[in-house]
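DATA SHEET
Item: assembly model
Revision: 1
Owner: S.N.
Input lines:
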Amino acid sequence: MSASPGKHIRTPLARVRGLGAARSGTVQFWRQRLTAVANIPLTIAVVVIIILLLGRNQAAVAQILGSPLVAIIMLLFIASTTTHMRIGMQVIIEDYVHDEIAKLVLIMANTFFAIAVALAAAYGILKLSFGL
Amino acid sequence: MAEIKAPAARPLSPHLQIYRPMLTMMMSIVHRITGFGLYFGTLLLVWWLIAAASPGAYSRYEWFASSIIGRLILFGYTWALIHHMLGGIRHLIWDTGRGFGPAEREWLVAANLIGSIAITVVLWVVGLLAMG
Protein backbone atom coordinates (compact mmCIF):
# COMPACT_ATOMS: atom_id res chain seq x y z
CA MET A 1 0.00 0.00 0.00
CA SER A 2 2.54 2.60 1.11
CA ALA A 3 5.54 1.32 -0.80
CA SER A 4 5.61 2.56 -4.38
CA PRO A 5 6.11 -0.08 -7.03
CA GLY A 6 9.68 -0.37 -8.18
CA LYS A 7 11.27 0.48 -4.83
CA HIS A 8 10.37 -2.86 -3.32
CA ILE A 9 10.13 -5.98 -5.33
CA ARG A 10 8.97 -7.98 -2.32
CA THR A 11 5.35 -7.88 -1.27
CA PRO A 12 4.39 -6.28 2.07
CA LEU A 13 3.57 -9.74 3.41
CA ALA A 14 7.00 -11.09 2.46
CA ARG A 15 8.70 -8.18 4.19
CA VAL A 16 6.98 -8.75 7.54
CA ARG A 17 6.94 -12.56 7.39
CA GLY A 18 9.13 -14.13 10.04
CA LEU A 19 9.38 -10.98 12.13
CA GLY A 20 6.87 -12.34 14.61
CA ALA A 21 3.67 -10.94 16.07
CA ALA A 22 3.80 -7.28 16.99
CA ARG A 23 2.31 -8.16 20.40
CA SER A 24 0.05 -5.19 20.13
CA GLY A 25 -3.33 -4.47 18.65
CA THR A 26 -5.11 -6.86 20.97
CA VAL A 27 -4.86 -4.61 24.03
CA GLN A 28 -8.59 -4.02 24.26
CA PHE A 29 -9.47 -7.64 23.53
CA TRP A 30 -7.16 -8.80 26.31
CA ARG A 31 -8.15 -6.09 28.78
CA GLN A 32 -11.84 -6.89 28.26
CA ARG A 33 -11.18 -10.52 29.28
CA LEU A 34 -8.88 -9.54 32.12
CA THR A 35 -11.52 -7.24 33.63
CA ALA A 36 -14.24 -9.83 32.93
CA VAL A 37 -12.37 -12.36 35.07
CA ALA A 38 -11.75 -9.75 37.79
CA ASN A 39 -15.41 -8.69 37.72
CA ILE A 40 -16.68 -12.15 38.73
CA PRO A 41 -15.33 -12.32 42.33
CA LEU A 42 -15.67 -8.54 42.74
CA THR A 43 -19.35 -8.57 41.68
CA ILE A 44 -20.11 -11.45 44.05
CA ALA A 45 -18.39 -9.56 46.90
CA VAL A 46 -20.25 -6.31 46.13
CA VAL A 47 -23.62 -8.13 45.98
CA VAL A 48 -22.88 -9.63 49.43
CA ILE A 49 -21.89 -6.18 50.77
CA ILE A 50 -25.10 -4.61 49.42
CA ILE A 51 -27.28 -7.34 50.97
CA LEU A 52 -25.53 -6.81 54.33
CA LEU A 53 -26.26 -3.07 54.08
CA LEU A 54 -29.96 -3.39 53.25
CA GLY A 55 -32.29 -1.81 55.78
CA ARG A 56 -29.50 -0.04 57.66
CA ASN A 57 -29.55 3.71 58.22
CA GLN A 58 -27.12 6.16 56.64
CA ALA A 59 -24.74 6.21 59.60
CA ALA A 60 -24.37 2.41 59.60
CA VAL A 61 -24.06 2.25 55.80
CA ALA A 62 -21.40 4.99 55.87
CA GLN A 63 -19.44 3.21 58.59
CA ILE A 64 -19.43 -0.18 56.84
CA LEU A 65 -18.71 1.25 53.35
CA GLY A 66 -15.82 3.25 54.80
CA SER A 67 -14.19 0.29 56.56
CA PRO A 68 -10.89 -0.72 54.91
CA LEU A 69 -11.78 -4.13 53.44
CA VAL A 70 -15.19 -3.05 52.09
CA ALA A 71 -13.78 0.22 50.71
CA ILE A 72 -10.93 -1.57 48.94
CA ILE A 73 -13.31 -4.14 47.40
CA MET A 74 -15.60 -1.32 46.23
CA LEU A 75 -12.65 0.59 44.71
CA LEU A 76 -11.41 -2.52 42.87
CA PHE A 77 -14.96 -3.21 41.64
CA ILE A 78 -15.27 0.33 40.30
CA ALA A 79 -11.86 0.30 38.61
CA SER A 80 -12.49 -3.05 36.93
CA THR A 81 -16.13 -2.48 35.89
CA THR A 82 -15.61 1.03 34.50
CA THR A 83 -12.67 -0.21 32.40
CA HIS A 84 -14.79 -3.15 31.18
CA MET A 85 -17.84 -1.02 30.38
CA ARG A 86 -15.76 1.58 28.53
CA ILE A 87 -14.36 -1.06 26.16
CA GLY A 88 -17.76 -2.73 25.78
CA MET A 89 -19.51 0.52 24.88
CA GLN A 90 -16.75 1.38 22.41
CA VAL A 91 -17.38 -1.91 20.61
CA ILE A 92 -21.11 -1.12 20.43
CA ILE A 93 -20.37 2.37 19.05
CA GLU A 94 -17.95 0.98 16.47
CA ASP A 95 -20.52 -1.61 15.40
CA TYR A 96 -23.46 0.72 14.87
CA VAL A 97 -22.15 4.26 14.27
CA HIS A 98 -20.66 4.54 10.80
CA ASP A 99 -20.31 8.32 10.49
CA GLU A 100 -16.66 9.08 11.29
CA ILE A 101 -17.25 12.33 13.19
CA ALA A 102 -20.19 10.97 15.19
CA LYS A 103 -18.16 7.86 16.00
CA LEU A 104 -15.21 9.89 17.29
CA VAL A 105 -17.47 12.16 19.35
CA LEU A 106 -19.27 9.18 20.91
CA ILE A 107 -16.03 7.35 21.67
CA MET A 108 -14.74 10.48 23.40
CA ALA A 109 -18.01 10.91 25.33
CA ASN A 110 -17.78 7.22 26.31
CA THR A 111 -14.32 7.78 27.76
CA PHE A 112 -15.44 10.90 29.62
CA PHE A 113 -18.47 9.08 31.04
CA ALA A 114 -16.48 6.04 32.21
CA ILE A 115 -13.83 8.20 33.90
CA ALA A 116 -16.44 10.51 35.48
CA VAL A 117 -18.35 7.51 36.89
CA ALA A 118 -15.13 5.94 38.20
CA LEU A 119 -13.90 9.11 39.89
CA ALA A 120 -17.30 10.08 41.34
CA ALA A 121 -17.79 6.61 42.85
CA ALA A 122 -14.21 6.54 44.16
CA TYR A 123 -14.72 10.00 45.66
CA GLY A 124 -17.79 8.76 47.55
CA ILE A 125 -15.92 5.75 48.95
CA LEU A 126 -12.80 7.72 49.87
CA LYS A 127 -14.91 10.38 51.58
CA LEU A 128 -16.51 7.64 53.68
CA SER A 129 -13.13 6.07 54.40
CA PHE A 130 -11.31 9.21 55.44
CA GLY A 131 -14.34 10.92 56.96
CA LEU A 132 -13.97 14.35 55.41
CA MET B 1 -24.90 3.58 -28.37
CA ALA B 2 -24.63 1.37 -25.39
CA GLU B 3 -27.61 1.44 -23.15
CA ILE B 4 -26.96 2.52 -19.57
CA LYS B 5 -28.22 -0.21 -17.37
CA ALA B 6 -29.14 0.06 -13.73
CA PRO B 7 -26.59 -1.72 -11.53
CA ALA B 8 -27.42 -5.34 -11.05
CA ALA B 9 -29.14 -6.12 -7.79
CA ARG B 10 -26.31 -7.86 -6.07
CA PRO B 11 -26.89 -9.93 -2.97
CA LEU B 12 -26.17 -8.09 0.25
CA SER B 13 -24.61 -9.78 3.23
CA PRO B 14 -27.37 -11.27 5.33
CA HIS B 15 -28.36 -9.46 8.51
CA LEU B 16 -30.39 -10.36 11.59
CA GLN B 17 -33.80 -10.52 9.93
CA ILE B 18 -32.70 -13.25 7.52
CA TYR B 19 -32.01 -15.79 10.25
CA ARG B 20 -34.48 -17.87 12.17
CA PRO B 21 -34.18 -16.67 15.79
CA MET B 22 -32.16 -19.12 17.84
CA LEU B 23 -31.57 -19.14 21.58
CA THR B 24 -27.80 -18.67 21.24
CA MET B 25 -28.36 -15.68 18.94
CA MET B 26 -30.99 -14.12 21.19
CA MET B 27 -28.75 -14.56 24.22
CA SER B 28 -25.88 -12.91 22.38
CA ILE B 29 -28.12 -9.90 21.78
CA VAL B 30 -29.33 -9.96 25.40
CA HIS B 31 -25.71 -10.00 26.58
CA ARG B 32 -25.05 -6.79 24.69
CA ILE B 33 -28.31 -5.16 25.85
CA THR B 34 -27.66 -6.01 29.51
CA GLY B 35 -24.12 -4.62 29.19
CA PHE B 36 -25.56 -1.44 27.67
CA GLY B 37 -28.04 -1.15 30.54
CA LEU B 38 -25.43 -1.80 33.22
CA TYR B 39 -23.30 0.99 31.72
CA PHE B 40 -25.95 3.57 32.60
CA GLY B 41 -26.89 1.67 35.77
CA THR B 42 -23.52 2.68 37.22
CA LEU B 43 -25.10 6.11 37.74
CA LEU B 44 -27.28 4.50 40.43
CA LEU B 45 -24.18 3.11 42.13
CA VAL B 46 -22.58 6.57 42.06
CA TRP B 47 -25.76 8.15 43.45
CA TRP B 48 -25.89 5.58 46.27
CA LEU B 49 -22.20 6.04 47.21
CA ILE B 50 -22.29 9.85 47.10
CA ALA B 51 -25.58 9.86 49.05
CA ALA B 52 -24.07 7.57 51.69
CA ALA B 53 -21.21 10.05 52.02
CA SER B 54 -23.59 12.99 52.48
CA PRO B 55 -26.01 12.44 55.43
CA GLY B 56 -28.70 14.84 54.18
CA ALA B 57 -28.97 13.24 50.73
CA TYR B 58 -29.33 9.61 51.80
CA SER B 59 -33.04 9.85 52.60
CA ARG B 60 -33.73 10.87 49.01
CA TYR B 61 -31.91 7.78 47.74
CA GLU B 62 -33.81 5.60 50.24
CA TRP B 63 -37.09 7.11 49.07
CA PHE B 64 -36.18 6.24 45.46
CA ALA B 65 -34.96 2.72 46.31
CA SER B 66 -38.13 1.87 48.24
CA SER B 67 -40.55 3.30 45.64
CA ILE B 68 -42.29 0.99 43.19
CA ILE B 69 -40.39 2.45 40.20
CA GLY B 70 -37.11 2.32 42.13
CA ARG B 71 -37.67 -1.30 43.11
CA LEU B 72 -38.48 -2.25 39.49
CA ILE B 73 -35.35 -0.51 38.24
CA LEU B 74 -33.18 -2.13 40.92
CA PHE B 75 -34.72 -5.55 40.21
CA GLY B 76 -33.95 -5.12 36.51
CA TYR B 77 -30.46 -3.92 37.39
CA THR B 78 -29.89 -7.01 39.57
CA TRP B 79 -31.04 -9.34 36.80
CA ALA B 80 -28.95 -7.52 34.15
CA LEU B 81 -25.88 -7.75 36.41
CA ILE B 82 -26.28 -11.46 37.15
CA HIS B 83 -27.24 -12.30 33.56
CA HIS B 84 -24.26 -10.40 32.14
CA MET B 85 -21.95 -12.05 34.68
CA LEU B 86 -23.15 -15.58 33.83
CA GLY B 87 -23.07 -14.70 30.13
CA GLY B 88 -19.51 -13.49 30.62
CA ILE B 89 -18.54 -16.82 32.21
CA ARG B 90 -20.12 -18.56 29.18
CA HIS B 91 -18.03 -16.41 26.84
CA LEU B 92 -14.88 -17.13 28.85
CA ILE B 93 -15.59 -20.87 28.47
CA TRP B 94 -16.09 -20.34 24.73
CA ASP B 95 -12.82 -18.36 24.62
CA THR B 96 -11.00 -21.57 25.55
CA GLY B 97 -12.56 -23.30 22.54
CA ARG B 98 -14.79 -25.51 24.66
CA GLY B 99 -18.57 -25.78 24.75
CA PHE B 100 -19.28 -25.23 21.06
CA GLY B 101 -21.00 -28.57 20.42
CA PRO B 102 -24.67 -28.44 19.36
CA ALA B 103 -25.91 -29.76 22.70
CA GLU B 104 -23.33 -27.95 24.84
CA ARG B 105 -23.98 -24.47 23.49
CA GLU B 106 -27.73 -24.88 23.91
CA TRP B 107 -27.21 -26.13 27.45
CA LEU B 108 -24.92 -23.19 28.26
CA VAL B 109 -27.35 -20.52 27.09
CA ALA B 110 -30.29 -22.22 28.82
CA ALA B 111 -28.27 -22.40 32.05
CA ASN B 112 -27.38 -18.75 31.61
CA LEU B 113 -31.02 -17.68 31.33
CA ILE B 114 -32.49 -19.97 33.99
CA GLY B 115 -29.55 -19.30 36.31
CA SER B 116 -29.83 -15.53 36.05
CA ILE B 117 -33.57 -15.54 36.79
CA ALA B 118 -33.20 -18.00 39.68
CA ILE B 119 -30.27 -16.15 41.28
CA THR B 120 -32.02 -12.78 40.92
CA VAL B 121 -35.17 -14.10 42.63
CA VAL B 122 -33.12 -15.71 45.43
CA LEU B 123 -31.12 -12.50 45.97
CA TRP B 124 -34.32 -10.45 46.21
CA VAL B 125 -35.98 -12.88 48.61
CA VAL B 126 -32.85 -12.82 50.80
CA GLY B 127 -32.66 -9.03 50.50
CA LEU B 128 -36.31 -8.44 51.38
CA LEU B 129 -36.00 -10.85 54.34
CA ALA B 130 -32.85 -9.01 55.47
CA MET B 131 -34.74 -5.73 55.41
CA GLY B 132 -37.49 -7.25 57.54
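QC remark: The longest helix of chain B spans residues 23-52.
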